[in-house]
């Protein structure tokens, strides 16, 4: 039998940011990943402190941005790679009223560091009313992040590439197959619905599509453009455009209506021909109150859950991985806004 402090189950941002916390705190762990493409792995990787529909911010936005940059610097120290792409978001204004609202909101103490007061006009794309730049916005190199960290943990013999079998947990002896564990943390996204210990978690899947396109007239490679969705460069001369939100069409194949929505959205501000080279989708794990879910099982006190990261998977996953670690190791209470205890006890 091998003794480990933690077993992590999951493939996305929650699992990997949590694994990072365990690494820097010298905790032993193994990460079970069955190799599926989680919503995190097909995400845009947008790092954005502003809600760009209403020009508002959200709970702990500045703290989350600062902590993410610190964390990515730590990760770079052992992977040798910088996964932060500091290309800012430029939000295309629909009309003069949006310009005025942006400027008004930029005077707000919570937004003044995020909403740039100087507007920019972009080449190639339609932006008759210019664009507003979101300061401190950026992107994560999503493919590099997951490839780099999975490779690192595999080389450290901490990655187990197989599906986790709940039936093999012995909660009385704290064993799983050949492992003696102190804690298990489930970071499974929507797959948590199959977990007998946390199947009652109020997680709602939100399906998001994106397309990768070849543009006939290229745009600046150093920015992310936002109107209805996000447009930015990826590898091989292609551009990512997405993603959609759908709580109704939850089947596991591409929705033609979502693709049409993306084609229409891109055509509204990109006036030239483009060719779709790839289409993909994922299911974001969301919660009605838009806050993650962290906590301990009501009966099995060494089983934990970390879920519900929603559309802000990078910021939520990074910031609250530290909160969950401190809760387990230091007995520091979780914020009531994200604690599992805010719901009826999960059995």
From TrEMBL:
InterPro entries listed in its UniProt record: FAD-dep_OxRdtase, FAD/NAD-bd_sf
GO cellular component: cytoplasm
Span of domain FAD dependent oxidoreductase: 5-321
One Pfam family here: DAO
Record's signal peptide: none
Protein known as: Glycine/D-amino acid oxidase
């Amino acid at each position: 039998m091998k003794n480990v402090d933690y077993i992590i189950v999951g493939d996305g941002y929650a699992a990997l940011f949590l694994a990072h916390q365990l690494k820097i705190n010298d905790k032993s762990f193994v990460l079970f990943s069955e190799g599926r493409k989680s919503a995190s792995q097909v995400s845009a990787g947008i790092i954005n402190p502003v809600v760009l529909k209403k020009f508002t911010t959200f709970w702990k936005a500045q703290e989350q941005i600062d902590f993410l940059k610190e964390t990515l610097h730590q990760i770079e120290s052992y992977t040798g790679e910088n996964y932060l792409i500091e290309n800012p978001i430029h939000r295309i204004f629909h009309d003069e009223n949006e310009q005025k609202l942006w400027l008004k909101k930029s005077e707000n103490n919570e937004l003044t560091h995020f909403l740039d007061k100087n507007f920019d006009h972009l080449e190639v794309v339609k932006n008759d009313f210019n664009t507003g730049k979101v300061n401190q916005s950026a992107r994560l190199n999503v493919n590099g992040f997951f490839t780099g960290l999975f490779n690192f943990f595999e080389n450290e013999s901490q990655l187990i590439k197989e599906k986790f079998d709940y039936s093999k947990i012995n909660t009385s002896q704290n064993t799983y197959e050949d492992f003696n564990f102190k804690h298990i943390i489930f970071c499974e996204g929507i797959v948590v619905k199959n977990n007998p210990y946390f199947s009652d978690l109020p997680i709602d899947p939100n399906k998001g599509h994106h397309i990768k396109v070849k543009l006939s007239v290229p745009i600046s490679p150093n920015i992310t453009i936002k109107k209805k969705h996000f447009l930015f460069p990826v590898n091989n001369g292609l551009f990512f455009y997405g993603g959609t939100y759908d709580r109704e069409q939850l089947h596991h194949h591409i929705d033609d209506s979502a693709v049409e929505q993306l084609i229409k959205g891109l055509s509204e501000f990109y006036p030239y021909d483009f060719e779709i080279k790839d289409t993909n989708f994922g299911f974001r794990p969301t919660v009605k109150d838009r806050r993650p879910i962290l906590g301990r099982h009501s009966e099995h006190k060494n089983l934990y859950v970390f879920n519900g990261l929603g559309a802000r998977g990078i910021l939520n996953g990074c910031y609250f991985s530290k909160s969950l670690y401190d809760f387990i190791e230091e007995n520091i209470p979780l914020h009531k806004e994200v604690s599992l205890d805010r719901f009826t006890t999960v059995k």
